[in-house]
Amino acid sequence: MRLPVQLLKRKPDAHKGDYGHLLVLGGSLGLSGAVCLCAEAALRIGAGLVTAGIPGSLNNIFEVKLTEVMSLPLADRGGALSREAFKDIKKFLDKIDLIVLGPGAGLKDSTKELVVRVIKEIDKPMIVDADGLTALASNLKILSKRKANSLILTPHPGEFSRLLKLDIGKIKERRKELVKKFALRYNLILILKGKNTLVSDGKRIFENNTGNPGMATAGTGDVLTGIVAGLLAQGIGQFEAAKTGVYLHGLAGDYAARDKTENCLIASDIIEYLPKAIKKKSFEA
User: Which domains does the chain have, with CATH numbers?
Assistant: First the structure.
Protein backbone atom coordinates (compact mmCIF):
# COMPACT_ATOMS: atom_id res chain seq x y z
CA MET A 1 0.00 0.00 0.00
CA ARG A 2 1.25 3.50 -0.88
CA LEU A 3 0.89 6.02 1.92
CA PRO A 4 -1.03 9.28 1.42
CA VAL A 5 1.30 12.15 0.55
CA GLN A 6 0.36 13.91 3.81
CA LEU A 7 2.32 11.27 5.74
CA LEU A 8 5.47 11.54 3.64
CA LYS A 9 6.43 15.21 3.88
CA ARG A 10 5.24 18.44 5.46
CA LYS A 11 5.57 21.92 3.98
CA PRO A 12 8.40 24.02 5.49
CA ASP A 13 6.11 26.73 6.88
CA ALA A 14 3.56 24.31 8.39
CA HIS A 15 1.75 25.08 11.64
CA LYS A 16 -0.48 22.89 13.79
CA GLY A 17 -3.67 24.38 12.37
CA ASP A 18 -2.79 22.88 8.98
CA TYR A 19 -3.25 19.35 10.29
CA GLY A 20 -6.68 19.48 11.83
CA HIS A 21 -8.29 19.64 15.24
CA LEU A 22 -10.36 16.71 16.44
CA LEU A 23 -12.60 16.30 19.48
CA VAL A 24 -12.74 12.92 21.23
CA LEU A 25 -15.98 12.57 23.21
CA GLY A 26 -15.99 9.80 25.78
CA GLY A 27 -14.48 8.56 28.99
CA SER A 28 -16.24 7.55 32.18
CA LEU A 29 -15.41 6.34 35.66
CA GLY A 30 -13.12 3.31 35.24
CA LEU A 31 -12.76 3.82 31.47
CA SER A 32 -10.55 6.88 31.14
CA GLY A 33 -7.84 4.98 29.28
CA ALA A 34 -9.91 4.58 26.11
CA VAL A 35 -10.03 8.31 25.43
CA CYS A 36 -6.33 8.67 26.24
CA LEU A 37 -5.27 5.92 23.83
CA CYS A 38 -7.49 7.29 21.06
CA ALA A 39 -6.30 10.87 21.52
CA GLU A 40 -2.61 9.96 21.72
CA ALA A 41 -2.85 7.78 18.61
CA ALA A 42 -4.43 10.67 16.68
CA LEU A 43 -1.55 12.95 17.65
CA ARG A 44 1.08 10.33 16.87
CA ILE A 45 -0.26 9.82 13.34
CA GLY A 46 -0.03 13.57 12.70
CA ALA A 47 -3.15 15.45 13.81
CA GLY A 48 -2.33 19.05 14.70
CA LEU A 49 -4.61 19.41 17.70
CA VAL A 50 -6.66 17.01 19.81
CA THR A 51 -9.15 17.89 22.53
CA ALA A 52 -10.67 15.31 24.87
CA GLY A 53 -14.29 16.11 25.69
CA ILE A 54 -14.66 14.26 28.96
CA PRO A 55 -16.82 14.18 32.13
CA GLY A 56 -16.07 17.32 34.13
CA SER A 57 -15.79 15.40 37.38
CA LEU A 58 -12.92 13.39 35.92
CA ASN A 59 -11.03 16.30 34.38
CA ASN A 60 -8.20 16.20 36.92
CA ILE A 61 -7.50 12.60 35.97
CA PHE A 62 -7.25 13.45 32.29
CA GLU A 63 -5.07 16.50 32.97
CA VAL A 64 -2.57 14.16 34.63
CA LYS A 65 -2.76 11.35 32.07
CA LEU A 66 -2.56 13.53 28.96
CA THR A 67 0.25 15.95 28.20
CA GLU A 68 -0.13 17.08 24.58
CA VAL A 69 -3.91 16.62 24.48
CA MET A 70 -6.21 19.44 25.64
CA SER A 71 -9.30 18.76 27.72
CA LEU A 72 -12.85 20.06 27.54
CA PRO A 73 -14.69 19.32 30.81
CA LEU A 74 -18.35 18.61 30.10
CA ALA A 75 -21.53 18.05 32.11
CA ASP A 76 -21.73 14.57 33.57
CA ARG A 77 -23.74 12.32 35.83
CA GLY A 78 -21.99 9.75 37.97
CA GLY A 79 -18.73 10.07 36.10
CA ALA A 80 -20.17 9.74 32.58
CA LEU A 81 -21.10 12.32 29.96
CA SER A 82 -24.72 13.43 30.24
CA ARG A 83 -27.30 14.85 27.84
CA GLU A 84 -26.65 18.32 29.31
CA ALA A 85 -23.19 18.30 27.71
CA PHE A 86 -24.70 18.87 24.27
CA LYS A 87 -24.92 22.66 24.53
CA ASP A 88 -21.21 23.03 25.34
CA ILE A 89 -20.24 20.56 22.61
CA LYS A 90 -22.21 22.64 20.15
CA LYS A 91 -20.43 25.82 21.26
CA PHE A 92 -17.08 24.13 20.61
CA LEU A 93 -17.84 23.05 17.04
CA ASP A 94 -16.33 26.11 15.35
CA LYS A 95 -12.92 25.14 16.75
CA ILE A 96 -12.80 21.56 15.42
CA ASP A 97 -12.77 19.64 12.16
CA LEU A 98 -14.17 16.29 13.25
CA ILE A 99 -15.54 14.29 16.18
CA VAL A 100 -14.71 10.87 17.59
CA LEU A 101 -17.64 9.60 19.60
CA GLY A 102 -17.77 6.76 22.10
CA PRO A 103 -14.40 5.56 23.47
CA GLY A 104 -14.94 4.62 27.11
CA ALA A 105 -18.19 6.60 27.23
CA GLY A 106 -20.10 4.00 29.24
CA LEU A 107 -23.70 2.93 28.87
CA LYS A 108 -25.69 5.22 31.16
CA ASP A 109 -29.03 6.28 29.68
CA SER A 110 -28.09 9.97 29.69
CA THR A 111 -24.84 9.19 27.84
CA LYS A 112 -26.70 7.19 25.22
CA GLU A 113 -29.11 10.10 24.70
CA LEU A 114 -26.15 12.42 24.18
CA VAL A 115 -24.55 10.06 21.65
CA VAL A 116 -27.75 9.79 19.65
CA ARG A 117 -28.25 13.55 19.61
CA VAL A 118 -24.67 14.23 18.50
CA ILE A 119 -25.02 11.79 15.59
CA LYS A 120 -28.42 13.16 14.61
CA GLU A 121 -27.86 16.89 14.91
CA ILE A 122 -24.18 17.75 14.42
CA ASP A 123 -22.87 18.38 10.93
CA LYS A 124 -19.21 17.46 11.35
CA PRO A 125 -17.26 14.48 10.02
CA MET A 126 -17.59 11.79 12.66
CA ILE A 127 -16.24 8.42 13.77
CA VAL A 128 -18.42 6.36 16.09
CA ASP A 129 -16.75 3.61 18.08
CA ALA A 130 -17.13 1.42 21.18
CA ASP A 131 -19.95 2.51 23.51
CA GLY A 132 -21.11 4.93 20.84
CA LEU A 133 -21.96 1.94 18.66
CA THR A 134 -23.92 0.31 21.49
CA ALA A 135 -25.98 3.48 21.88
CA LEU A 136 -26.53 3.53 18.12
CA ALA A 137 -27.64 -0.10 17.92
CA SER A 138 -31.18 0.63 19.14
CA ASN A 139 -31.42 3.87 17.13
CA LEU A 140 -30.24 2.89 13.65
CA LYS A 141 -32.91 5.01 12.01
CA ILE A 142 -30.95 8.15 12.90
CA LEU A 143 -28.26 7.11 10.43
CA SER A 144 -30.65 8.02 7.64
CA LYS A 145 -31.59 11.32 9.30
CA ARG A 146 -28.14 12.50 10.32
CA LYS A 147 -26.72 15.83 9.20
CA ALA A 148 -23.10 14.75 8.78
CA ASN A 149 -22.25 13.42 5.35
CA SER A 150 -18.94 11.93 6.50
CA LEU A 151 -19.44 9.07 8.97
CA ILE A 152 -17.26 6.09 9.88
CA LEU A 153 -18.35 3.22 12.13
CA THR A 154 -15.73 0.89 13.61
CA PRO A 155 -17.45 -2.19 15.11
CA HIS A 156 -15.87 -5.43 16.18
CA PRO A 157 -17.95 -8.56 15.34
CA GLY A 158 -19.96 -8.36 18.57
CA GLU A 159 -20.90 -4.73 17.96
CA PHE A 160 -21.72 -5.44 14.32
CA SER A 161 -23.92 -8.29 15.52
CA ARG A 162 -25.87 -5.82 17.67
CA LEU A 163 -26.17 -3.35 14.79
CA LEU A 164 -27.49 -6.02 12.42
CA LYS A 165 -29.44 -8.05 15.01
CA LEU A 166 -27.69 -11.07 13.53
CA ASP A 167 -25.72 -13.93 15.08
CA ILE A 168 -21.92 -13.53 14.98
CA GLY A 169 -21.54 -16.93 13.34
CA LYS A 170 -23.72 -15.85 10.43
CA ILE A 171 -21.78 -12.60 10.12
CA LYS A 172 -18.51 -14.53 9.82
CA GLU A 173 -19.98 -16.59 6.98
CA ARG A 174 -20.98 -13.48 4.99
CA ARG A 175 -18.57 -10.82 6.23
CA LYS A 176 -17.81 -9.04 2.99
CA GLU A 177 -21.40 -9.10 1.75
CA LEU A 178 -22.83 -7.74 5.01
CA VAL A 179 -20.20 -5.04 5.44
CA LYS A 180 -20.68 -3.78 1.91
CA LYS A 181 -24.50 -3.81 2.16
CA PHE A 182 -24.52 -1.96 5.47
CA ALA A 183 -22.13 0.73 4.23
CA LEU A 184 -24.17 1.21 1.06
CA ARG A 185 -27.52 1.28 2.84
CA TYR A 186 -26.48 3.98 5.29
CA ASN A 187 -24.02 5.87 3.04
CA LEU A 188 -21.03 5.56 5.36
CA ILE A 189 -17.66 3.88 5.80
CA LEU A 190 -17.71 0.66 7.81
CA ILE A 191 -14.61 -0.83 9.40
CA LEU A 192 -15.28 -4.36 10.64
CA LYS A 193 -12.40 -5.14 13.00
CA GLY A 194 -10.83 -8.55 13.51
CA LYS A 195 -8.54 -10.88 11.61
CA ASN A 196 -8.24 -9.42 8.10
CA THR A 197 -10.21 -6.29 9.02
CA LEU A 198 -12.60 -5.13 6.30
CA VAL A 199 -13.22 -1.56 5.13
CA SER A 200 -16.05 -0.63 2.77
CA ASP A 201 -17.84 2.44 1.46
CA GLY A 202 -20.62 0.31 -0.02
CA LYS A 203 -18.96 0.12 -3.43
CA ARG A 204 -15.33 -0.73 -2.71
CA ILE A 205 -14.01 -3.16 -0.15
CA PHE A 206 -10.53 -3.44 1.32
CA GLU A 207 -9.33 -6.52 3.19
CA ASN A 208 -6.34 -5.88 5.44
CA ASN A 209 -3.36 -8.23 5.62
CA THR A 210 -1.43 -6.79 8.56
CA GLY A 211 -1.84 -7.47 12.27
CA ASN A 212 -1.43 -10.44 14.60
CA PRO A 213 -3.16 -12.25 17.50
CA GLY A 214 -1.19 -10.21 20.04
CA MET A 215 -3.43 -7.27 19.13
CA ALA A 216 -6.39 -9.02 20.73
CA THR A 217 -5.96 -6.98 23.88
CA ALA A 218 -7.75 -4.10 25.60
CA GLY A 219 -7.46 -0.70 23.92
CA THR A 220 -6.26 -1.66 20.46
CA GLY A 221 -9.60 -0.63 18.96
CA ASP A 222 -9.31 2.80 20.61
CA VAL A 223 -5.86 3.17 19.06
CA LEU A 224 -7.23 2.28 15.61
CA THR A 225 -10.00 4.84 15.91
CA GLY A 226 -7.48 7.50 16.88
CA ILE A 227 -5.23 6.66 13.94
CA VAL A 228 -8.10 6.90 11.44
CA ALA A 229 -9.30 10.14 13.05
CA GLY A 230 -5.83 11.64 12.87
CA LEU A 231 -5.61 10.83 9.17
CA LEU A 232 -9.01 12.41 8.53
CA ALA A 233 -7.96 15.51 10.44
CA GLN A 234 -5.11 15.97 7.98
CA GLY A 235 -7.51 16.11 5.05
CA ILE A 236 -7.22 12.53 3.83
CA GLY A 237 -10.45 11.18 2.32
CA GLN A 238 -12.72 8.85 4.29
CA PHE A 239 -12.04 5.59 2.50
CA GLU A 240 -8.33 6.29 2.13
CA ALA A 241 -8.02 7.27 5.80
CA ALA A 242 -9.88 4.16 6.91
CA LYS A 243 -7.89 1.63 4.89
CA THR A 244 -4.54 3.37 5.53
CA GLY A 245 -5.31 3.56 9.23
CA VAL A 246 -6.23 -0.11 9.41
CA TYR A 247 -3.09 -1.10 7.51
CA LEU A 248 -0.68 1.00 9.58
CA HIS A 249 -2.36 -0.06 12.84
CA GLY A 250 -1.72 -3.70 11.95
CA LEU A 251 1.80 -3.05 10.67
CA ALA A 252 2.76 -1.20 13.86
CA GLY A 253 1.32 -4.11 15.81
CA ASP A 254 3.44 -6.53 13.80
CA TYR A 255 6.62 -4.59 14.56
CA ALA A 256 5.69 -4.39 18.23
CA ALA A 257 5.04 -8.15 18.38
CA ARG A 258 8.45 -8.90 16.84
CA ASP A 259 10.22 -6.94 19.56
CA LYS A 260 7.95 -7.61 22.52
CA THR A 261 6.22 -10.90 21.51
CA GLU A 262 2.54 -11.31 20.79
CA ASN A 263 1.86 -12.35 24.36
CA CYS A 264 3.37 -9.17 25.83
CA LEU A 265 1.94 -6.69 23.33
CA ILE A 266 -0.31 -3.95 24.75
CA ALA A 267 -2.28 -1.25 22.96
CA SER A 268 0.12 1.60 23.70
CA ASP A 269 2.88 -0.38 21.97
CA ILE A 270 1.03 0.14 18.70
CA ILE A 271 1.25 3.91 19.17
CA GLU A 272 4.94 3.57 20.01
CA TYR A 273 5.65 1.63 16.81
CA LEU A 274 3.62 3.80 14.42
CA PRO A 275 6.70 5.83 13.38
CA LYS A 276 8.53 2.64 12.41
CA ALA A 277 5.55 1.49 10.33
CA ILE A 278 5.34 4.84 8.53
CA LYS A 279 9.10 4.99 7.89
CA LYS A 280 9.07 1.47 6.49
CA LYS A 281 6.30 2.30 4.03
CA SER A 282 7.87 5.67 3.19
CA PHE A 283 11.08 4.00 2.07
CA GLU A 284 9.06 1.65 -0.13
CA ALA A 285 7.15 4.50 -1.79
Answer: 17-284 (3.40.1190.20)
